[in-house]
Design goal:
With 271 residues, this protein is of the alpha+beta class. It contains six helices and ten strands. Helix 1 packs across helix 6 and helix 3 packs across helix 6. The mean pLDDT is 97. The protein binds a DNA duplex (16 and 16 nucleotides) through helix 4 and helix 5.
DNA sequence: AAAAGCCCCTGGATGC
DNA sequence: TGCATCCAGGGGCTTT
């Protein structure tokens, strides 16, 4: 479910409302990807300062320590008045005096991890190897092209790896490569500087557009206010195997790369 | 160092 | 209706 736009949309939908809230209690459901790393009861009484995002992680800053949240493949957050008891897939309930922050995650690839600070070994292990933020000033051509040049793997998989640039997942990798006219199977090191610039711009535009329309809701994504996204209506290649390219009419192809589906137009995207 | 595979887990869609 | 198989928006870890 959640790539950078969905995570950011989620953050924007509750960050201001939860800022300043006092934690009343914390309840965990079934195990997520990693243990919390602290006694949940010890967080009672702490104050939430704000919510930041790094890649696909949300960082909930407390007056002491922080919580790292990851939505994995099927996670979604909600924040508001607690109106229903925790369901079988609600694996985090953070009760505050401003509302209940709840993580719903059927597949449990998500995570809730406590760290004293970002230098904490636990936090560093998760955040330390992350690449540049694609929507930041720091995402510039020279370093991006230099990074691509030292990778022989297919460009799609380099984008997904997240150590060069973060936040680009399976949907937006296919979408950005289509907009850049680049075949997903092309070795990253063979992308010329002008094409790298096209790709850089395409990544920014696709992510910014998805963010602006609330992300993509394929199955069940919704932000912390329960609102769904609409980028799926604008997808040009993802999940469109066999359908005509919206640009040239050729049949969209689907292939497997690293056990993930990739979609592209054989005519518009050059090897 | 980089790349390729393997898992973690549940549920929905599809096929027989 | 029941059951088996495949697929899904991620990414850390282990092995080449």
């Amino acid at each position: 479910m959640p790539e950078l736009p969905e995570v950011e949309v989620t953050r924007l939908s509750f960050a201001e409302r939860i800022a300043g809230a006092r934690i009343v209690s914390m309840r965990l459901g079934k195990p997520l990807r990693w243990p919390l790393g602290v006694d949940p009861a010890s967080l009672a009484g702490r104050r939430v300062l704000g919510v930041r995002r790094r890649g696909k992680y949300l960082l909930v800053d407390l007056d002491r320590g922080l919580l790292l949240l990851h939505l994995g493949m099927s996670g979604a957050l909600s924040f508001g008045p607690a109106r229903t008891p925790a369901g079988k897939h609600d694996h985090l309930d953070l009760e505050t005096d401003c509302g209940l922050l709840r993580l719903h995650d059927p597949r449990r690839f998500g995570a809730v991890v406590y760290a004293e600070d970002e230098a904490d070994p636990v936090a560093n292990k998760l955040l330390g190897g992350l690449g540049v933020e694609p929507l930041s000033e720091g995402f510039e051509l020279i370093a991006f092209h230099r990074g691509l040049r030292q990778r022989r793997a297919p460009i799609k998989q380099v984008l997904l790896a997240g150590d060069l640039v973060v936040g680009v997942g399976n949907i937006y990798a296919s979408e950005a490569l289509f907009r850049a006219g680049i075949r997903p199977t092309l070795a990253a090191c063979r992308i010329s500087k002008p094409r790298a610039e096209r790709l850089r711009v395409a990544i920014r535009e696709v992510l910014a557009r998805a963010l602006a329309v609330g992300g993509s809701t394929l199955r069940d994504f919704s932000n912390a206010q329960g609102e769904s996204g609409y980028f799926q209506l604008e997808m040009l290649v993802y999940d469109r195997a066999g359908q005509p390219c919206r640009q040239c009419g050729a049949s969209i192809r689907q292939i497997r790369q690293g056990q993930r589906s990739t979609f592209y137009c054989p005519a518009c995207q050059k090897p």
